[in-house]
Specification:
The protein is α/β, with parallel strands linked by helices. About 30% of the residues lie in helices and about 20% in strands. This is FAD-dependent oxidoreductase domain-containing protein 1.
């Protein structure tokens, strides 16, 4: 009897332990599954570590209010002022499309970084005066919380233009306009020029104009990075890709003269992603053409200039890439720290680069334009076209011929009048050109609003 009771008790205990073990194992398994499920849910939530099978983070948004083609200083300036003028954060969705984020061929970083007020058009002078104030107070405009302040390495050494007897009257008239607009520019006779800059040969010089304030040069790469950093903090979106097509609708109209024209309304931009055959459509209301030397090609994508020659529809955007050389040389006996940027009668210019008797300069070709598709630098051009006028104007530069030369390539923009094209394009109202000006001075046009309105004097205020 006792044996039977012990056997029953032992059996119940073993059975209970077995059941308990099974129950416990089942509970542990369920807890483990719940834990895994929780982890998966958390990873899918915003901020989680979960990644889809196809990463789309590099693609631009499907919709934007404004698409800016070109991410150089001009395009970034447009983006900056658009965001500055919005009534509330996020009110305007701005997308900047740049095909080369290294900016290896961008005119912005390949330019000499000059700023001047010595222009003949009042609008250019006003734009440059504002830009000088902008650069002087750069950290009030482009400061970003927790980031170090910007240092543009500005050299306020001025511009010095030389004129012959033939060009003296034009220079006087230009300086009169410049002074009326508030620029500080003085005229100098050959005697005054020799006294101020004894290293200059004044032969052939009848008159000179010299900028006393707000002129000089700085590091354009620092400005580019500062603008890019600021607009990103303001919510501007960036995309590395190339605009390859505009999708538009057409409306046929007739001009006062009876000419039939087709007005196109752009409502979509197609962007080809970098190093890929992938395309992303972006719906938009406005397109800003800030593609620099390639603005003419972008305009053609929108149909500009595709009509019959001599008609409004056949008028092309007068912008084309032109290759310019900027040479760097060393001359121990060259002009000192007081040397301005000198623009000679011959078209040759030079300025000091740093503090170690280094100089850079160049000139535009007087004859046939070099092929912009060939990015090689022509060193013979320096020896034959640049160095002789330099050595004549500054005798100390005679010695630079025996020193090593280095050079870089500058892609400039050219238009029929060497001035900016701003406002709506007649046959494509949604396309805003903002691309054209002669080098080497381009920073005069950081001015607000001038990118999206016609060039009239009353349109150059921030409220516009």
């Amino acid at each position: 009897m006792l044996r039977r009771a012990l056997w029953l008790g032992l059996r119940r205990g073993l059975l209970g332990r077995e059941l308990g073990t099974r129950r416990g194992g089942s509970t542990l398994d369920w807890d483990g599954k719940v834990s895994d499920i929780k982890k998966k849910i958390q990873s899918i939530l915003p901020g989680g570590a979960w990644k889809p099978l196809y990463d789309t983070s590099h693609l631009p948004p499907e919709q934007a209010d404004v698409v800016i083609v070109g991410g150089g200083v001009l395009g970034l300036s447009v983006a900056y002022w658009l965001k500055r003028l919005e009534k509330r954060r996020g009110a305007i969705r701005v997308l900047v499309v740049e095909r080369d984020h290294t900016y290896s061929q961008a005119s912005t970083v390949l330019s000499v970084g000059g700023i001047r007020q010595q222009f003949s058009l009042p609008e250019n002078i006003q734009l440059s005066l504002f830009s000088a104030e902008f650069l002087r107070n750069i950290n009030e405009y482009l400061a970003v919380v927790d980031d170090p302040p910007l240092d543009l390495q500005f050299n306020p050494s001025g511009y010095l233009f030389l004129a012959s007897e033939k060009g003296a009257a034009t220079m006087e008239n230009n300086v009169k306009v410049q002074r009326q607009e508030g620029a500080k520019v003085c005229l100098m006779s050959p005697e005054q020029l020799r006294k101020k800059f004894p290293w200059i040969n004044t032969e052939g010089v009848a008159l000179a104009s010299y900028g006393l304030e707000n002129e000089g040069w700085f590091d354009p790469w620092c400005l580019l990075q500062g603008l890019r950093r600021k607009v990103q903090s303001m919510g501007v979106l960036f995309c590395q890709g190339e605009v390859t097509r505009f999708v538009s609708s057409s409306t046929h109209m007739e001009t006062i003269s009876g000419e039939e024209v087709t007005l196109k309304r752009i409502h979509e931009v197609q962007v080809k992603m970098d190093c890929s055959q992938e395309y992303q459509p972006v719906e938009c209301a406005i397109v800003v053409n800030a593609a620099g030397a390639w603005s003419g090609q972008i305009a053609e994508l929108a149909g500009v200039g595709k009509g019959l020659p001599g008609t409004l529809q056949g008028t092309k955007l007068p912008v084309e890439p032109r290759k310019r050389y900027v040479y760097l040389w060393h001359c121990p006996q060259g002009p000192g720290l007081e040397a301005p940027l000198v623009a000679d009668l011959s078209g040759v210019y030079f300025r000091r680069e740093g503090l170690g008797n280094n100089y850079l300069g160049g000139c535009s070709p007087a004859e046939e334009e070099p092929d912009p598709g060939n990015l090689e630098v022509d060193h013979d051009f320096f020896q034959e076209k640049v160095w002789p006028p330099l050595a004549w104007r500054v005798p100390a530069f005679e010695t630079l011929k025996h020193h090593r030369l280095s050079s870089t390539l500058l892609l400039s923009r050219a238009s029929c009048s060497h001035v900016w094209l701003v406002g709506k394009w007649t046959t494509v109202p949604e396309a805003q050109p903002d691309a054209t000006h002669q080098e080497p001075s381009w920073t005069e046009h950081l001015r607000t609003g001038s990118f999206l309105v016609p060039t009239q004097k009353d349109c150059l205020c921030p409220s516009q």
